[in-house]
Structures are given as structure tokens and as C-alpha cells.
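Lab notebook, bench 4. The sequencing result for the construct came back, and we need a structural model before the next group meeting so we can plan mutations. Quick request posted to the team channel:

Model the 3D structure of this chain.
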Amino acid sequence: MIKKLLPFALRRLGRHKLTTLINILGLTLGILSCLVIYLYVRFEFSYDTFHADRDRIYRVGVWMTGPDGKINEGASLPPPLAADLRREATGFSTVAGMYTDDCRVIVPETGKPDRVFPGIPEGKRQHITFADPQYLEIFHYKWLAGNPATALKEPFTLVLTESEAKRYFGHGSPADWMGRSVVYYDSLTVSVSGIVEDWEQNSDLAFTDLISYPTIEHSWVRNDISGWNAFESSANAFVKLSPGTTVAQVEKQFPAFFKLHETFIGETKGGLLLQPLSDIHFNSSFGDDYGRRANKPTLYALAGIALFILLIAAINFVNLSTAQAILRAKEVGVRKVLGSSRAGLIWQFLSETGIVVLASTVLALLLANPVIALLNGDLRAGPVGLPDGVRLRMADPDTWVFVGLTVTVTCLLAGWYPARALSSFLPVITLRGQGSQQLNSRSYLRKGLIVFQFAVSLVFIIGTMMIGRQIHFMINTDLGFKKDAIVTIVLPGGPAGQHAALAAEISTITGVSQVSISSNSPGARGHNGTVLENRGAKYVRIDAGYDFVDTGFMSLYGLTLIAGRNFFPSDTVRWGSVPAKGYRAFIINEAAAKALGFNRPADAVGQRVSSALGGVVGPVLGVVKDFHANSLREKIGPFFFTYQSDGGGLLSVKLASADLSRGTMKGILGKMEALFATRYPKEQFNSRFFDESIARLYERENQTARIVNIGMGIAIFISCMGLFGLAAFTANQRTREIGIRKVLGASVPHLVVLLSREFIVLVLLATLIAAPVAGWGAHRWLQDFAYRTTMPWWIYVLGGFAAIVIALLTVSTQAIRAASTNPVNSLRAE
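Done. Here's the predicted structure in C-alpha cell form:
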């Protein structure tokens, strides 16, 4: 049977080359979109699914109620929390604390120069962590050397993954690497106590250097830890529940646990929670320094986009097949008279569909990895980017199952209805030349499918414009500080005075107008948080973000003081050995002043407040106008600055002008790098323009915009191909009508309008359907932003106009060609 069906199907497809080409191209794009998105979505959902007892593993998180009543969640914890939780709470099989970091690494070599490995660039994932021994009881490795029970028990011990050991030592075996010394941050020497195999599966916990937690007391990290007084973004804790213990049972203990640590929580409304391991990869509220977040709604939206694209391609096939039905009516009639059954005809038509689908699938498989490589270059940055690990592996059985299902579903979507429709023709009617009577009802289906195609395309068009409008709003809205002509430089650790000396040298460069050292920039990806108290007549305790700054910070970033004054160098002294004797001065924002109970900003000036940040106390020197310390997704919350002249890790450099030539800018940056190299010869120079850092806050939105743009382009292209094919077929069917009209005096513009009118009406109807759907989707998306743009009516009009223009350009090419044909040629056969 196949021997008979296949040659006929191939001849039939070859006879209608334009239709076959449109169908193959459309289905290739549809199947390719599904395949690439499937590989990406499966990759993201594979994170940390391989751990034993993963349903019992949780990360400890904290929740706090802000002044606006909103509950904020996070994974930043006081470093001692894990140890105290292990002692004071029950229901845990294991509790492990960890403190992540990254720095320059030196590997001493006997008789050779030391091997030096720079720290990771800003914005990349940290790969070093100080880990409790219990960490190895929660997350299991295959050990190549060492004992998991003792490897992280003593200070100055280190466990490396095999790939990291090869990177550090270059050659040898795990046994050779045991006992080797590794120096972190030029000051901490540890010995290798274990070598483990790298995890082949995807994980957000892909640490390559595990340093024993007791080593913290002898490292640079000790100076950064504030006990129970601050939430450290680098401090996390993981737990493994005892068998049979529920999350609710464990969380019942947390209020009492907080009561034992009033210096941490006081009267602030908040508490601990347990975040499932499966939630870590997708929940951006729980920020950390080592994981890469993916966005579930985006992944689901991607899957929906892929299905819609495939559906649009299948609709093209259905439309073109049913449109050509009149050409096959006599063929069906003759076949039925000669004894062909309806089932046989259905198989014949499905075989034609199968050939097209298989050809499209082969093309999609060949194009998958090149397209993924192209998308990697466009989408890989950001928390939900397309990572390098996404690719088509031909040996993967799951991929072939997906491809098989996709081929089957596509064959059914594209071929079943045309096969049933064509095989249902009555031979008596078709052989009389009256087959068109049976096609009238199907023309309505065809029109409905065209409306559906363009409605989907219009949703993409309107969605793209709304997302672009919101991104433009976020990038260009007044953030409360200046962001142009500012370069930020990441400062490594070093001797006292090194940062200030470098800042002074850079300030002398021609083209530099001002410098400032701080712990962070005003619009950073994440700020540290702590408790701020007003111990006046009415006691108030709030949660607030904070940064350490110097005296030049306010003017460099253009923060507006609305009450009080800026810092002076004399406004602070070194912290005392007893926290209560510590002294600091504060500058707070309007939101903090209001939350602390001051009716006016000026009322806060001179009042003494205290912070859990080392137990310091001091006056409020000034109040700055509210600014966006975080992205526009979040409302402006309480924030304060405190003075520290040389302790920050970020150097901000204000250029004299934002209009410097490219050569001048390159020269200034080169001088900065040269000065940096003289102060920190072994460190990597990491600099970035501050406005680029602001843009990085909206990577998710930019990626969403790119994804929707790509989806829009594919959907419109496929829809237009189908429209082009239908217009060509319609023009061909009405050739004689066009000839008669031209003989009777019809002009070319009149004929173009006649042939295009039906399609334009269908696109207008699609606009009416798509507008409310797109508006609803855009409204839901905008709800994620505390500060958002408006949804003007002209967006929908512009989207509809764009769709009409695209459709008109597509159809008019065939309409003009048909209208320009010499009527003598079209009427010669009459």
C-alpha cells in the first residue's frame, strides 16, 4: 500500500510547488520553535532534581513585613543562625550553614611561579563557599579521594571538584592533589582534604571550592560578619527534614526561636520559613550570590508561544489544502467511482501530509543547534537567559519521544480535517462539475482560521509594544539619582588606605570630575538590610536597606537632600569593642523617616536612632528625597546611609561630560586600569558604566521583549505565508473574472481592492478579537511592577494598523500581478 501511496503523494506535492514550499517552511518553523523551546524548558526544570531525598531538602528563608504591609521574602540570614537552629530546633535530620564568596586564588608551585586565578567578574555566579561538614550529608558527591565524614570538620581544609582541581594543579591524580595548598584572597592558606566528582546534572549549588566553615574565624570573612545584627546575602542555611516530619511541624517552632534572639527580630513582624529545594531555581524573591534564577511564567509563556506557532503553521496547511479542494474534487469522484474507499482516500491525503511533516521535522532537527547557538548570543545574559547547556542531543531518548509526539500531533492537526473533508465529496456531484457547492461551508472555516492566525499575531504585536513601552518607562523614568557619565569599578580587598589612595589618583585624570567609595551604588541589584530603631518618645523599629558611603557619594549620584546636611569626615569614629559604644551618623530617605514616626523630614534631623548593624547609635544628619534603590517592580522602602571613608568595595567615577568621544573615553578608562594595576597588580580590573548596571536590573523584561519579538516575527511570517498562498490561489481561480472585468473597463487599483477586500475585512475582525485579549494580558503583566506605564488606546489602533499593512502588502503583490495580466491571455480558453 505504501508503495502505491508514496509515489503518487510525491508527484502531487511536486505539481504544486508553491503550496508545498509554504507548508514545509511554515511547519519547519513551527516544529523548530517547539523543539528549541522544549529543550530550553526541560533544561530549566532539570535543576537540582537528582539529589537523594530532594523532597526533604529545604533552604531556610526569612520573611519580613515592610512599612507598606507587603511581605518580603529572602534567603539572606544572620551567619550564626544555622548553628543555633541546629542546637535549638527539632525535626531536622541535618542542618548545614554556608557562606559564599569569590576571590583571587593562588596555587603555590615548588620551584615554579605561583599559579594565579582571578576572581569571577561582577555579576557572575560565585563558586566558593565556606560549608559546614553537614553540607556533605545533605548534598552527596562521589568521592575520588578523602573522607566525607572528616573532610570539612577541621579549619584550613578544602574539598575541590575534579574539574577545579585540574584547573588549579594542571596534572596529576586525586591522590596527588591531596594535601596540596591553595591560597585564597592572598591571606588564607588551606589544604586539600578531599576530591569529588563534578555533578553532571544541572544545579544552582555548583560550588567547586568547599572550604570548611570553621576556617571563617581565621579568614577575611570574619570582618564581614555582624553576628545576629544583619542579614548577610552570602549567608544561607539548608536543612533536611527528619523522615515523617512536615514543614508545618517545623515552622511552629520558629516564633519561639525568634524570641530567643530579640536582638535580631525585636518587634519587627517577621519570621523564618522553609523554601523547597525545587523552588530555588524559580523564585527570584530569594536572591543569592550563586544561583541562576529562571522564571516559571516565562517558561510557561514560551511553551504557549511554541504551541501557537505550531498551530498557526498547521492552520496554514489546513487553509491551503481546503482551498485547493475544488481542484481535487474530480479526482476524488473518479477514485470513488473506480472503487476507492473513504478510508483509502484519507490515508492517501494523510500520506501527503506525512511527507511534508517529516521533511519539516528533518529540517528542524538540522537547524536546532545553529538556532540555539544564535539565541545563546542574544538571550544568554540574565537570570532567565538561554544557557550554554541547552542543545539538541541526538542520543537523548526523551528528545526523540518529544519529536515523535510532535510529528504525530502535527500530522493530525494539519492533515486530519483536510483528509476527511476531501474524502467526503460525493462522486455524482463532483463529476457534474458541481463540487464547489460542497466547499461553501468550508470557506467559512477557512476565513475563521485566517482570523485566528492574525488574532494571535496581533496579540504578539500589541504585547511587544506594551513591553517595550514599560521597559522605556523603567529606563527613562526619574529614579531619584543621576546615572549618566558614571563608571563603577569593583575594588578588591587590600591594606587600609589602598582604596582611598586609588580614588585620589583617579580623581587627577583629565576628564574625571569626582570620585566616591561606597559599599554599593544607589540602584544596585541587591542591598544589605538590617533593623533601624527610633528610641524616642514612641519606640519604632523598622527593616531598612543600607549602604556605607563617603562624603562625595551624595553629590556624585545627585541624591537630593531635603532636610539636614551631608556627611563630614568627623561624623563617625571606629566601632568600639562593645557594640553599645559604637557611634555612627545616619542619612535616611523619606520612606524611612515616615516609617520611624516623623511627620516631616525635618523632624527627623538631629534625632538619635540606632541600628542592629553592630549595635551602633547616632543622630540623623539629613533626609534625602526617595529614590529607587531597587527596580521599579518594588515600592520604595526605608533606606539609610552611614559613613565609612575607605571600607566600601565600589569606586564610582563621575566623568566631566557624557558627550566624550569614543577615543577620549577609551583613554580615560585605560588610565584608570593602569592606576588600578599599580595598586592591585594581581587583581582583575572590573568596570562598568552605571547606566548599564541600571539596565541589568531589567534583564528579565528585556529578555521577555526579545522572546515576544521573536515569537511575533515567526507568527507573522507564517501567517503571511499562508495569506500569500491563499491570495495566489484566489487570484488564479478568478483569472477569467478579472479578464472580463478589465475588458469592461475595470482599473488595476479597482481590481486590487476587489481581490484584497476580503482579506482586509478578516484582519479587521482579528483586530477586534485580539485587542481585549492583548489588553488583558498586558494588564496582568504590568501588575508585577509597583511603578508602571499606562495602556493608551492608540496602542491597539497602531497594532491593528500594522497588521492591516502587513496583510495588504502580502496580498497586494498577488492582486497586482493578477490585475495586470493581459485579459486576452486569461479569456483565450473561453
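The chain has a mean pLDDT of 80.
Will bring this to the meeting.
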